[in-house]
Amino acid sequence: MNATKLLGIATTAALLSTGAMAATMTPAQQCTALQKQFDQEIVKHGTAAKAGEAKTLRTDAGKLCSSGKDADGVKKLEQALNDIGVKPQS
To answer: What is the pLDDT of residues 52-78, one digit of tens each?
Structure first.
């Protein structure tokens, strides 16, 4: 097996395992991951047209996640990320 083919197989396996991991995250884990993603991305995208609204959504989502309403928190976090032009990763 040549090195190029081996590298392609390894890359495919890594991508598939990442997708499988995201699919098995609980809503609580998604809340945590999306909050972290937003907090990192808002630094780069703080001048987006809807950045203010996104920050409000992030705050509301954090409260929902903390109170056990993880699915609702995830929805708000996904919207907040979309508002600043970033694709949610979980």
So the answer is: 999 999 999 999 999 999 999 999 999
Please indicate, yes or no, if residue 38 is contained in any of the structural domains.
yes
- Within a domain: 82: yes
Q: Which two tokens stand for residue 28?
A: 């609580």
Distance CA 73, CA 79 (A): 10
**CA-to-CA dists, residue 26 to 43, 57, 65, 68, 72, angstroms:** 26, 21, 12, 12, 13
Domain of residue 53 covers 25-90
**Alpha carbons within 13 A on the beta-carbon side of 56:** 4
Establish if 4 belongs to a structural domain. no
- The DSSP-derived string for 30-66 is HHHHHHHHHHHHHHHHTTSTTHHHHHHHHHHHHHHHH
